[in-house]
Amino acid sequence: MPGYRGRMELGRVGVWWSGAWEVASGADVDVPAELERLGYGTLWSSGGFRPGLAPRFERLLSATGRTVVASGITNIWLTPAEELVPAVLDLDARHGGRYLLGLGASHGPVVEGYRRPYSTMAAYLDAVDALAPTVGPDRRVLAALGPKMLELAAARSLGAHPYFVPVEHTALARDVLGPDALLAPEVTVVLETDPATARARARGFTTGYLGLPNYADNLRRLGFSDDDVAGGGSDRLVDAVVPWGSPARVAERVRQHLDAGADHVCLQVVHPLETFPLDAYRSLAAELPTG
Predict the structure, then answer these.
(1) What distance separates the 2 farthest-apart alpha carbons in the chain?
(2) What would the pLDDT profile of 84-103 be if each residue is shown by its tens digit?
(3) Which of 86, 104, 192, 203 is within CB 3.0–4.6 Å of 232 for a Cys-Cys bond?
(4) Total-model pTM
């Protein structure tokens, strides 16, 4: 992976999904194993909103043989470092060093007692580093949007995992991170060629995220106006943050992120969380630089 200083090979494209890693009832297919066969290098999933290390990571690692599994993210407010680190080390030891710990400070509206996310993250990393053995910088990434958190990610982890960002953010993040840190943005996509239908589906996703100040403020820093951010987002904002169209058109946007400085792009297909959109990832795999 060009410029990437770490030992873990994430591949150029991965999958981001926090719903059920299963297809419709009755279908005889193991989704993680199929995604590995298709060439997706890393499977990302949220750590959820319960203390501890989510059991889904064990499931994803057990179902695959070489794919990296990463948390995007594990919430630092929910589990003390002295409880999280031993769980991560145990999981990683049992699955060949294929687990990447993504840590994030989450958002004020969803975390009771939320305050000073940068300082809280720095203190959490201090607590992680004080343990022996521990999850070292080359085995963790940080959720990061603004310059200060991106700088922290470069200094004290493998790199950054930004979420809900356009290509312009990827270029700016690379400038802040420098040439050697990992940059692995999440990119949500809609496989639909009709503009009105595609944007309507995209707004079902963007509306909630634009209500979180961290994401809205990040887009304002990139030049989007209050009018762009209002509601579910203007057409300009929706088109920038949620690529839509044919698999080939979506793959072109992925390449734009890679050209702008991303080492790895993790794709999330807009779809009900109850079932996994495996057919969509199959069609995308034919167009993407996976592996």
Answers:
(1) 54
(2) 999 999 999 999 999 999 99
(3) 203
(4) 0.96
